[in-house]
Amino acid sequence: MSRSSSAGGAGHERVARRAGKHVSSNACGPDAYTTAAIGLHWIVAALIVGAFALGWTMTRIPGITPDKLRFFSWHKWIGVTLLGFALLRILWRLTHRAPPLPASMSAWQRCAAHAVHVALYALMVAIPVSGYLYSSAANVPVVYLGLIPLPRLIAPDPVLKVWLKSLHIALDYGLLVLVAGHVAAALKHQWIDRDGLLARMLPFLK
Q1: How far apart are alpha carbons 61 and 107 in whole angstroms?
Q2: 149-175 confidence digits (pLDDT tens)
């Protein structure tokens, strides 16, 4: 092989490597969430898990005990914090385009993913609001972090209290079902489809 052909082959290899790096960089850019979006996602996820765990624990403590009252307060504080972060996340989502879904996803999967995300956003707001209204109807004040008294939005109402409690619990279990489906779908994309979808929220998986 001549020296000129060897040089030409090496040149083509360098061009190919540079092109590959360029394509890889483009693939990681638009297909990834921003650091802020990833942070908001996991903060909200942690708050949801914490609130549900506390709610599950405190409602299984019989009677009125200091621990039960403490857990109720923590549950409310987490709920108020969750509402704030959920609204911030929705605002971020409205002002920042989400990365495109993998091209391999079918139309029905795309529609299902969109519907689940909309439902999750709605429940992240509706659940804390329903809990807050339930406390107001039950004539139990919400003192955020034990320091900031929050205003009552409705007057005490024993009938409405029962209805709001049932609504709050139903929405909680609805969120549990959606989160379980969301996690199952993410794991399917990671281990079965292998399309890199989960890596958008867990960059270390790339």
Answers
A1: 46
A2: 999 999 999 999 999 999 999 999 999
Alpha helices, H only, 29-142: 35-58, 66-95, 107-137
Residue 143 contacts residue 69 (beta carbons within 8 Å) = no
Q: What is the pLDDT of residues 94-132, one digit of tens each?
A: 999 888 888 888 999 999 999 999 999 999 999 999 999
82 and 48 in contact (C-beta within 8 Å)? yes
Burial class (CB within 10 angstroms; exposed 0-12, middle 13-18, buried 19+) of 160: middle
Residues 47, 86 contacting (CB under 8 angstroms): no
* Backbone CA torsion sign across 93, 96, 92, 89: positive
Q: Is 55 in contact with 75 (CB distance < 8 Å)? A: yes
Contact present, 126 and 172 (Cβ < 8 Å): no
Whether the CB-CB separation of 120 and 82 falls below 8 Å is answered with no
Q: Taking the CB of residue 14, how many other CB atoms lie within 10 A of it?
A: 10
CB of 54 closer than 8 Å to CB of 74 = yes
**157 token code pair:** 């109402």
